[in-house]
Design a protein that fits this description.
Elements: E1 4-12, H1 18-28, E2 32-41, E3 52-54, H2 56-69, E4 73-78, H3 86-97, E5 98-106, E6 111-112, E7 115-116, H4 122-131, E8 137-138, H5 142-149, H6 159-170, E9 176-184, E10 187-194, E11 197-204, H7 213-226, H8 231-247, H9 260-265
Parallel strand pairs: 1-2, 1-4, 4-5, 5-8, 8-9
Antiparallel strand pairs: 2-3, 6-7, 9-10, 10-11
Helix pairs in contact: 1-7, 2-3, 4-5, 5-6, 7-8
The chain binds 3-hydroxy-5-(hydroxymethyl)-2-methylisonicotinaldehyde.
């Protein structure tokens, strides 16, 4: 039986990110994807303007019907939530809808390049720092790791800085800590801290930086991890997938990385 994952993030009508990425990727990797859309946006917030409909008021009714139907999930993938009040609802979701051994994967998804995304503030960061204590795996980038730990952001860094961030995050969660987008000597990859051990996964650093690649990474990672692959293998598969998407996308493309061809080329059914 396919694993059933609930992904909780926004639905942006235009611009590949969040649910428009998670759904096709999870399905292609053989994971049954259920969704909890937290907000409906006209487009992602890297465009010059956007509309935002908060779907929080509907969530309690959705939970009510899920309880009546007896739904349970094997895993949860959280990305861009948009509002700190959603953190309590996320915890309620873990409490009420976890099947035995369900895994919680949280991509904090609130910033990049040393800055918060539009609409986020310190209160959101604090609420996320509290929510990640529930995670089995967290996937912050360097910016998010810096905000979550309060360790000042650095554009240029070495492994000593990354390890400081890893240890700082490990004080906030007993789950595995994976810092994404770690650059070193012309390579990019992930720093993994789990069970007291640190491990690095690296791949070629490509010149383009595209919107939504973190969401693609998280979806491929989640599929691999839920299907039983080790953390490092799930990271390597996700990093390789993202690199292939970037190679297919014009550097100036603003809509997110083009993952469709890469998905179509994917061999086999399940990620492992
Ligand atoms: O990729 C993260 C993300 C998700 N959802 C929305 C966003 C962003 C990043 O800016 O704007 C709506």
């Amino acid at each position: 039986m396919a694993k059933r994952i609930l992904t909780m993030q926004d639905l942006s009508c235009v611009g590949q990110c969040s649910l428009t990425v998670a759904l096709p990727v999870l399905s292609a990797y053989g994971v049954e994807a259920a969704v909890l859309p937290t907000a409906l946006l006209s487009n992602h917030t890297m465009f010059k303007t956007w509309s935002y409909l908060d779907l929080t008021p509907e969530i309690e009714s959705i939970y009510g019907k899920w309880r009546e139907n007896g739904f349970l999930f094997d895993g949860f993938l959280l990305g861009y939530l948009g509002k700190s009040s959603l953190m309590d609802l996320a915890e309620k979701c873990f409490d009420d809808f976890s099947d035995e051994g369900a895994k919680i994967i949280i991509d904090p998804a609130f910033g990049d390049n040393g800055k918060l995304y539009g609409g986020f503030d310190g209160e959101y960061v604090k609420a996320m720092a509290n929510l990640i204590r529930r995670a089995d795996v967290i996937l912050p980038n360097i910016t998010e790791a810096s905000y979550l730990t309060g360790i000042p952001y650095r554009e240029n860094y070495g492994r000593d800085y990354v390890e400081k961030l890893l240890k700082g995050l490990a004080r906030l969660t007993s789950g595995a800590v994976i810092i994404t987008g770690v650059e070193e000597n012309g390579m990019i990859g992930e720093a993994i801290y789990a069970g007291g051990e640190t491990e690095y996964v690296t791949a070629e650093l490509l010149p383009a930086r595209l919107h939504g690649t973190g969401d693609i990474f998280a979806a491929v990672f989640a599929a691999g991890y839920l299907n039983g692959a080790p953390l490092s293998e799930s990271c390597a598969a996700a990093g390789d997938f993202v690199a292939r998407c970037i190679k297919r996308t014009e550097p100036s493309h603003f809509y997110g990385a083009c993952f469709e061809d890469v998905l179509a080329e994917k061999e086999g059914g399940n990620a492992q």
